[in-house]
């Protein structure tokens, strides 16, 4: 990589490192038990929500009530979103006259947005009305990260509290997260985006006259859809001249802000953040990149602050960062080196290899390293937005986002869900490491016993099982909807279901929707979210009841470099052991075919 | 730590090993196999591949019958080896139990109708005795059953149980009334009230525990089993989904061959955590065994496990931290008295005093001042024994009246005699008390001669042990009936972290409860009935075998040697058990990486030949690669049996240090070892022409 590219990366991570602690401590204030200074400014709004919802903020919940509230809230929200999409043609704010979303697609999309996945088997500007985008999808862009954060906060309370069954009040956590965190951040960020040129309008699609007219030929089809063959035996073609380009508009900025902050990633437009209206300038690109990682990374420090030992938070942060950094590098190098076959051809004709690396599917505005960084962090976190097309990456470059997803969205991961996923891996690492020091395992003074292991096993098991089983079903039915044959097509299917099962939402591109994929994907996203959140809350409930074992020389320290290495090994080994064969058949075979044609 | 208690049993005793071999095949019955989920999946895999081999023999198989046969054979070996490990552990336990049982031969018991030595006796076999029966045991008789002495005093040889040759006193009433079946009365007589029905005695229960017949999985073992089951499910799905993936790849590339079921089963067995799955129950049984070798019988595996967690030890001062008795260490003469005079008077006064304190005064006088001990009858002296009223003892030789005793008693005595109690003696007494010692004042007639400093002697090496415990993160608390001043001084000298002075049974119980509420796990040793509530409350409670039945019932371990210092050994064994489990789990999982590199390129050799790039070990052929991985997977179980039975090496160190060492040995070692092992096996197979 060039010096310029290194500077880009170092500057980005430098800014991130500087911001995580202040934001982490701020969030610890939002979710903590002590009086919080933000209440002076926005306390009225918080109280208004309680009044409207009839919530008694002092009444705490045990884990079962907390879980039930979360499930009901998500399920009802999902059902309303489904109805809204089905009836969008009858509802206002639909200037482009979008018709009802088909039932299987609406099912898939509703689950996709309530689970913070934001997998899109559709193009935004050609499918959704403005009302659906604003009052449907964007609302869940707020609620799903708020719910994720509430879940991890409940888990942290389980670790901190002793001999109680109460984990806090779900409604309070949702309201406070919205009022003090996501709403203010989204408002500020949306204004910046508007300033930089993102549209924020209800106006319909505009037609712009092209500077130079273009034309294309299209085969004529009959009513049955078959190509009409002319007298000369060739297909009949119609010649179309294009003089205008429709420019899709809408309330983009408001949705873009929360899409990035809340690890949602569901774009307003089909090409997501590669679109100049979603991501107009280098500044927005930088801020959007930062927004992807900011809250998931800062939550590590929130965790540290809430357990009263920032070192614990830094340890989790370090483990996540060390899992991320080499992958950013690998992806950058692979994309910069480009395709050796193409390089050889170019060298033969131009006398030199392509200096820009693999630019297929990338925005020229962003270039290789920025795209590689985006691809890596958007899959490390469960954001899933793209500013380049991962399908067009080199095999090993494309391996990186796939790998980040397969690690289970725990490398920073989704807002809240990434940290609770990682904490479950911590519990797993502590279980084995704890035994190795001759004690029954404990984490932050809480004993890890059979019940916690049972729940942790479910959390670790579900995403790979969903990924592998759905992929198996898809390839057993012949693997429809792929863009490419062979190993690359296999990667497309594997990537799609890994993305949905792990609630990432990033698409390799190339995989198109069909009813089976819509339904199977919807189910995978549902289980991938809630069958991880429920056992996590169960662990929280069980831990909260326990006593705290005071730390001593015999206690396994969980903030040392050695433990960080243990944790990283656990995450990698579980991920690698589960997906190594599948990865071998996908990107690894493809890479071998590319370098040894 | 010392291993002085551990009677090491040879690892592979011929008889046990032979029996274990037979047993490992008998354990192949599905009813037994299903109890271990990991090994059960291997078992099913073995049956499946055997079926595939039979199918291949008919010529319609998916691969060469020889290859399938070899894979199938080694899968069966994997199962048998795991069974062998368990059978070895059980065999060693049984051998240990048999040794214990030898002491429990059938004897004739003299049954009495009432608690009267001279009442009518009936001879019955010991096996017919019921709870509540009264039996007379006289010198030379074996005690026929566990019970409680209700009359008489006797010397009992308990070496059969404790290995300690010195006989002990057993008497009715008090803390020394419990007797154990199989021990022998060597003097006098006892009337014993039988406390258990045949087959239910304490020892019977202990023996059946050891034999593993009633062994239940411990909480941590259950938790680990859940994790292993989860991993097994993951690998099952990984391997099962490879079949459709492989079909798709073949269809897409239009070339190659779909991976065979035999290879998938082989891959699954290699990936499943068979190493730890196969050794887990052996590790648990071996933990109990090691306790027994240390002459401690744990009532449950749970107790052994808890021992590893202990972070607070309550130790009785007397007998554990200090030698049982105080010893004279110094003479402090009063003004105008020479030290020689004092030493002589002190020695004379103690000549007839057979208490250890008395003897220590004689010895000190002899060693320090060259005063030869004299025989009391040569001096024509008369001995004045200690009484609770006078609180002093002494000797009258002619007109000399020498007395020694507590400061207040001597003060009263001298004042009564018309003497004076000097101030420097008073300060001497106070200074000794302050330093944790016991002052004894010596007077002759009405003249006070000086003070003897009696001191608790802290056992040699105990400080190092406490330092060791501190490094392990275990807090030590000394329990003593002494006043806080004395207790503090001894605590400081012995290097314990804390002490509980003037301890009553209630105070002990309260201390344990409070510590537990603070999240600590408490271990203690005790023998008296008044210890029982505290023993019942403690997480790890080691009752002394010489203790009362109540104490033994309340504890969860019994130390046959009745040595309270053994608590430290118990903690060590508990930790070792957990460490062995953790280390082998790490090893087992780390092994998988190498196995992937062996099997994946081989499995897809015909589907995607490009994957041969992953064959970094350069294994000869796909068949030999798969076979080598399977063989390694089976053989490693046998190689690790000694480790499972003996436990991983344990040194007292901080948790960070232990983690670092074990992570390097079993984690990094587990990553590298199979690369070497599989390559070696492949080379052997190639050399034998089997590749």
What keyword list fits this structure?
heterodimer; A: 597 residues; mainly alpha; two-stranded antiparallel ribbon; 62% helix; globular; B: 691 residues; alpha+beta; eight-stranded antiparallel β-sheet; seven-stranded mixed β-sheet; 22 helices; 21 strands; 52% helix; 17% strand; disordered N terminus
**Low-confidence parts of chain A, pLDDT < 50 over ≥5 residues?**
none
Quote the average pLDDT of chain B: 84
Measured by DSSP, the beta-strand proportion of chain B falls in 15-25%
Shape of chain A: globular
What can you tell me about this protein's structure?
The complex is a heterodimer of chains A (597) and B (691). Among the domains of chain A are: 210 residues, no CATH class; 42 residues, no CATH class. Chain A is built from 18 helices and six strands. Chain A is 62% helix and 6% strand. Chain B has 22 helices and 21 strands. In chain B, the strands form three sheets. In chain B, strands 1, 2, 3, 4, 5, 6, 7 and 8 form an eight-stranded antiparallel sheet that branches. In chain B, strands 9-21-20-19-10-17-18 form a seven-stranded mixed sheet, sandwiched between helices. In chain B, strands 11-16-15-14-13-12 form a six-stranded antiparallel sheet, with helices on both faces. The longest helix of chain B has 38 residues. Chain B is of the alpha+beta class. Classes of the chains: A mainly alpha (597), B alpha+beta (691). At the A-B interface, helix 14, helix 15, helix 16 and helix 18 of A face helix 7, helix 10, helix 20 and helix 22 of B.
């Amino acid at each position: 990589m060039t010096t310029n590219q290194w500077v880009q990366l170092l500057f980005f991570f430098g800014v991130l490192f500087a911001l995580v602690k202040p934001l982490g401590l701020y969030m610890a204030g939002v979710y903590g038990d002590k009086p919080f200074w933000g209440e002076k400014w926005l306390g009225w709004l918080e109280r208004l929500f309680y009044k409207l919802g009839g919530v008694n903020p002092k009444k705490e919940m045990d884990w079962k009530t907390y879980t039930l509230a979360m499930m009901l809230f998500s399920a009802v929200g999902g059902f309303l979103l489904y109805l809204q999409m089905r009836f969008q043609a009858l509802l206002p704010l639909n200037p482009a006259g979008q018709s009802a979303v088909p039932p299987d697609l609406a099912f898939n999309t509703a689950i996709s947005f309530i689970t913070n996945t934001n997998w899109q088997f559709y193009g935004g500007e050609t499918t959704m009305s403005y009302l659906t985008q604003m009052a449907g999808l964007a609302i869940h862009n707020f609620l799903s990260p708020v719910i994720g954060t509430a879940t991890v906060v409940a888990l942290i309370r389980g670790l901190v509290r002793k001999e109680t069954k109460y984990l806090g009040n779900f409604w309070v956590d949702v309201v406070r997260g919205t009022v003090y965190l996501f709403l203010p951040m989204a408002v500020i960020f949306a204004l910046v985006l508007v300033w930089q040129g993102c549209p924020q309008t209800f106006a319909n699609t505009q037609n712009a006259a092209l500077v130079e007219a273009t034309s294309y030929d299209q085969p004529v089809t009959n009513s049955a859809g078959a190509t009409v063959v002319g007298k000369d035996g060739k297909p009949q073609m119609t010649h179309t001249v294009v003089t205008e380009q429709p420019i899709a508009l809408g309330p983009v900025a408001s949705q873009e802000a929360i899409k990035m902050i809340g690890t949602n990633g569901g774009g307003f437009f089909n090409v997501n953040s590669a679109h100049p209206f979603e991501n107009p300038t280098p500044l927005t690109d930088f801020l959007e990149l930062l927004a992807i990682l900011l809250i998931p990374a800062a939550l590590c420090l929130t965790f540290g602050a809430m357990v009263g030992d920032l070192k614990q938070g830094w340890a989790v942060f370090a483990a996540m960062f060390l899992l991320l950094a080499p992958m950013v590098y690998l992806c950058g190098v692979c994309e910069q080196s480009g395709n050796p076959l193409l390089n050889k051809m170019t060298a033969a004709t131009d006398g030199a290899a392509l200096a820009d690396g693999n630019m297929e599917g990338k925005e020229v505005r962003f270039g290789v390293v920025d795209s590689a960084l985006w691809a890596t962090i958007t899959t490390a976190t469960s954001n899933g937005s793209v500013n380049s097309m991962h399908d067009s990456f080199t095999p090993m470059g494309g391996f990186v986002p796939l790998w980040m997803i397969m690690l289970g969205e725990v490398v920073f991961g989704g807002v809240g869900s990434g940290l609770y996923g990682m904490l479950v891996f911590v519990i797993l690492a502590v279980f084995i490491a704890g035994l190795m020091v001759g004690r029954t395992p404990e984490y932050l003074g809480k004993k890890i016993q059979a019940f916690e292991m049972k729940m942790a096993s479910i959390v670790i098991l579900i995403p790979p099982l969903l990924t592998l089983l759905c992929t198996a079903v898809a390839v057993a039915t012949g693997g429809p909807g792929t863009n490419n044959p062979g190993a690359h097509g296999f990667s497309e299917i594997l990537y799609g279901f890994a993305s949905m099962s792990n609630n990432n939402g990033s698409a390799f591109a190339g995989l198109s929707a069909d009813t089976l994929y819509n339904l199977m994907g919807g189910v995978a996203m549902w289980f991938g979210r809630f069958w991880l959140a429920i056992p996590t809350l169960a662990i929280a409930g069980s831990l909260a009841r326990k006593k705290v074992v005071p730390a001593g020389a015999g206690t396994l320290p969980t903030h040392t470099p050695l433990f960080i290495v243990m944790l990283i090994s656990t995450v990698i080994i579980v991920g690698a052991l589960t997906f190594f064969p599948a990865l071998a058949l996908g990107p690894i075979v493809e890479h071998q075919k590319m370098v040894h044609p | 730590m010392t291993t002085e208690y551990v009677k090491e049993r040879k690892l592979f005793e011929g008889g046990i090993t032979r029996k274990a071999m037979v047993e490992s095949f008998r354990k192949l019955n599905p009813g037994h196999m299903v109890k271990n989920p990991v090994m059960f999946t291997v078992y099913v895999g073995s049956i499946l591949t055997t079926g595939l081999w039979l199918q291949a023999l008919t010529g319609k198989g998916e691969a060469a019958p020889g290859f399938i046969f070899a894979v199938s054979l080694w899968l069966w070996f994997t199962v048998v080896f795991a069974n062998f490990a368990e059978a070895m552990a059980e065999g060693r336990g049984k051998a240990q139990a048999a040794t214990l049982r030898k002491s429990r031969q059938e004897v004739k018991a003299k049954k009495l109708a009432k608690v009267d030595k001279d009442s009518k006796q009936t001879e019955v076999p010991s096996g017919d005795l019921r709870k509540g029966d009264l039996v007379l045991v006289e010198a030379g008789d074996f005690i026929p059953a566990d019970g409680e002495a209700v009359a008489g005093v006797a010397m009992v040889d308990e070496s059969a149980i404790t290995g300690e040759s010195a006989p002990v006193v057993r008497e009715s009433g008090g803390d020394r009334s419990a007797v154990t079946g199989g021990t022998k009365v060597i003097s006098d007589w006892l009337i014993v009230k039988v406390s258990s029905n045949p087959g239910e005695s304490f020892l019977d229960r202990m023996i059946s525990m050891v034999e593993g017949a009633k062994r239940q999985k411990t909480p941590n073992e259950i938790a680990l089993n859940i994790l292993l089951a989860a991993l097994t499910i993951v690998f099952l799905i990984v391997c099962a989904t490879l079949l459709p993936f492989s079909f798709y790849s073949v269809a897409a590339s239009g070339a190659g061959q779909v991976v065979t079921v035999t290879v998938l089963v082989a891959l699954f067995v290699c990936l499943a955590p068979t190493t730890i799955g196969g050794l887990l129950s052996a590790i648990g049984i071996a933990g109990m065994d090691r306790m027994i070798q240390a002459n401690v019988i744990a009532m449950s595996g749970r107790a052994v496990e808890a021992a590893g967690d202990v972070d607070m030890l309550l130790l009785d001062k007397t007998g554990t931290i200090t030698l049982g008795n105080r010893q004279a260490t110094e003479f402090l003469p009063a003004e105008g008295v020479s030290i020689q005079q004092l030493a002589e008077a002190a020695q004379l006064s103690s000549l007839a005093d057979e208490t250890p304190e008395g003897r220590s005064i004689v010895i000190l006088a002899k060693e320090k001042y060259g005063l030869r001990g004299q025989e009391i009858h040569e001096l024509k002296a008369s001995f004045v024994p200690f009484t609770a009223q006078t609180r002093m003892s002494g000797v009258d030789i002619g007109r000399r009246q020498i007395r020694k005793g507590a400061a207040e008693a001597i003060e009263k005595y001298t004042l009564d005699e018309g003497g004076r109690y000097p101030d420097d003696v008073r300060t001497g007494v106070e200074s000794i008390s302050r330093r944790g010692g016991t002052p004894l004042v010596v007077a002759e007639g009405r003249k006070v001669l000086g003070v003897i400093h009696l001191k608790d002697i802290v056992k040699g090496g105990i400080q190092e042990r406490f330092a060791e415990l501190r490094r392990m993160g275990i807090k030590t608390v000394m329990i003593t009936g002494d006043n806080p001043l004395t207790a503090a001084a001894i605590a400081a000298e012995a290097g314990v972290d804390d002490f509980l002075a003037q301890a009553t049974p209630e105070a002990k119980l309260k201390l344990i409860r409070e510590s537990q509420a603070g999240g600590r796990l408490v271990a203690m040793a005790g023998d008296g009935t008044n210890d029982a509530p505290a023993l019942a409350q403690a997480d790890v409670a080691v009752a002394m075998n010489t203790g009362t039945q109540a104490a033994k019932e309340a504890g969860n371990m019994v130390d046959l040697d009745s040595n309270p210092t053994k608590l430290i050994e118990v903690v060590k064994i508990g930790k070792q058990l957990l460490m062995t489990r953790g280390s082998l789990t790490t090893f087992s999982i780390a092994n998988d990486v190498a196995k992937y590199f062996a099997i994946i390129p081989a499995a897809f050799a015909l589907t995607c030949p490009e994957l041969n790039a992953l064959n970094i070990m350069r294994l000869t052929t796909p068949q030999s690669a798969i076979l080598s991985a399977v063989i390694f997977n089976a053989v490693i179980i046998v190689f690790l049996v000694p480790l499972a039975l003996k436990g991983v090496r344990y040194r007292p160190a901080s948790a960070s240090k232990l983690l670092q060492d074990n992570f390097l040995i079993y984690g990094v070692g587990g990553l590298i070892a199979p690369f070497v092992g599989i390559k070696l096996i492949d080379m052997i197979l190639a050399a034998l022409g089997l590749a």
